[in-house]
Each structure stands twice: as structure tokens, then as C-alpha cells.
Here is the input.
Amino acid sequence: MKTRLKRNRLIGIVVSLFVLILLINSCEIAEDIGGINATVAKLEGEWTCDEESEFFKATKEIYTVYISPDADNYDGIIIDGFYNLGDLGLKATLSGKTVTIPLQTLSGDFTVTGSGIISSNLEEIEWAYNVDDGSGVIDHVTALYSKN
Here is the structure.
């Protein structure tokens, strides 16, 4: 009888742990429901860009950009105001805390590529990117985005 009671108690504990694990995982999954990555959703909004340019701009420039989810890419973002060029819609992709800007040409023949690292609190992004204004000269740029 004691053995049967211990066995039933053990089964109860195992089932309880399984249910607990299932509940925890379903909470994490729920964050991604709606077609966008949870991190992407948290990045959406206005950011202050503190940018340093090697060639094309004044040594330092501060301006505002807007990050929004890319409706065509679950892990994608769109940055309006990138390089202070207006609402050009630069596309980038998240992988963990890394943001990658694939090689792309924006209007005005600006070709860009680069990457950024998102801070653990999702309040800053440190960038390094290259911009060619069409002249063939590559501007090496670093920037810090801070969430407004």
C-alpha cells in the first residue's frame, strides 16, 4: 500500500511539473502571436540617433529616427530617417540582439550595409555601417540610437 501511495505521489509531481513547464512555454509563445517578433515590437518607436560620420557629414550629428516592424519579415524592422535621409524605409533583420542591415540601395543612390547590437534593456542600439552616396567613396559611420 505504501509503495502504491509513493508511486501515485511521484506521478502527481511529474504531471504537475509537466503542466508548469507547458504553461511557462505557452506564455513565451503568446508574446510572438500577431505576426511580429516580441523584440521587434518592443523596438518600435522614436529613437534619437547620435551619429559620427567619417566623410560626408559634420563630425557629429544628432537627429530622430523611427523604427517600425517590417510587415513582410517576422524578424525585420524598418528604419525611417536612417542617415538623416528622410523616410526611406531602410530594412534590417534581427537575430538575437544583433541587427543586420543587408546591402541595399536607398533613393538618391545611397548604398548601405552594416550591423548593430541591441542593449539588454532594449533601450539602445550601437551601430557601425557603411554608406556610399553613389560617388564610390565609402563613409564609415558609427551611431548610438537611444529610445525616446
Q: What stands out?
A: The radius of gyration is 23 Å. Helices lie at 2-31, 38-43. The first strand starts at residue 45 and ends at 53.
